[in-house]
Amino acid sequence: MDTNDGIPVRILIVDDDPALLEALPETMRLRIPGIIVDTALSSAEALASIADIDHDVIVTDLVMPGMTGIDLIRKMREIRPWTPMILMSGNPNPQGYALRTRAYGFIQKPIDRDYFTATLRRAIRYSRLSKKIQKKAGDVQKHLDGLSEIQRQMGKQATKVQSRYAGGKAIASVSESVTPTSFPLS
């Protein structure tokens, strides 16, 4: 799971708790070898990070100063619409928040490390598959664009041929070459 076509797995964890941002990345590095874990203490820091880096998964806390996790996910979706985002919270009934934001998953605090790792691994697989699909869709679009160009060129050629033989000149030249004597009558 550590690489995909030579590209390392990269996640972003956003939380205003410095202790969590120190412990959780270390746990993830032990459980998912080769993973790169970026952290952000604020929503503004997270938005700056995702503008520059295409993370495989983004994990954010629900309650933070300034901008809530819900608002952050909505803003991040504008920049990275296909990146799976996981919402974390100590709120006793947070599933509704996760549904409202179309979050990929939800992690209850205090964090169960096994559940977190399993959720993160699923999100990483989803992210990698989404990226492959996007790449294939881009390839298909390039081929469609190429076919459109060929069709456009053929249309231009057909227009040239039609204008060249406009007014029945083509039929006249064919009929001149075909005379009654050119076909033997039996």
Describe this structure as you would to a colleague.
With 186 residues, this protein is of the alpha/beta class. It has one domain (3-136): Rossmann fold (3-Layer(aba) Sandwich), CATH 3.40.50. The protein has helices at residues 18-31, 43-52, 69-79, 95-101, 113-164, 169-177, and strands at 3-4, 7-8, 10-14, 36-40, 57-61, 85-89, 105-108. The strands form two sheets. A five-stranded parallel sheet has the order 4-3-5-6-7, sandwiched between helices. It has a two-stranded antiparallel ribbon with strand order 1-2. Helix 1 (18-31) links the parallel strand 3 (10-14) and strand 4. Helix 2 (43-52) runs parallel beside helix 3 (69-79) and helix 3 packs parallel to helix 4. The radius of gyration is 30 Å and the shape is elongated. It starts with a strand and ends in a 9-residue tail after the last helix. The mean pLDDT is 81.
Task: Fill in the keyword field for this structure.
7 strands; 55% helix; five-stranded parallel beta sheet; 186 residues; Rossmann fold; 6 helices; alpha/beta; two-stranded antiparallel ribbon
